[in-house]
Specification:
The chain is built from two helices and three strands. The two termini are about 20 Å apart. The protein has a single domain (about 1-65), classed as Nucleoid-associated protein YbaB-like domain (Ybab, Chain: A). It is elongated. Strands 1-2-3 form a three-stranded antiparallel sheet. The chain is α+β, with helices and mostly antiparallel strands.
Length: about 70
């Protein structure tokens, strides 16, 4: 499974595995014109977005797998 996170409306895309391992970073040529500090912020935002989506996806899958088992903290 691969999960994508984006920063800057798609200027930067980070792809993570379902285990939250970074797979690749795609940077739009337009993002390169923003300067180093802004590019760093865009990459960070994309990483945070991918992490959140990954966490949400895993939580949903665990709820589906454990549905009806009434396990605490799930």
């Amino acid at each position: 499974m691969e999960i994508e996170g984006q920063g800057g409306g798609g200027l930067v895309t980070v792809v993570m595995s379902g285990n939250q391992e970074p797979r690749r970073v795609v940077i739009s040529p337009d993002a390169l014109n923003e300067g180093a500090e802004m590019l760093s912020d865009l990459v960070t935002a994309a990483m945070q977005d991918a992490y959140q989506k990954s966490t949400d996806t895993m939580r949903e899958r665990m709820e589906t797998l454990t549905g009806g088992l009434n396990l605490p903290s799930l």
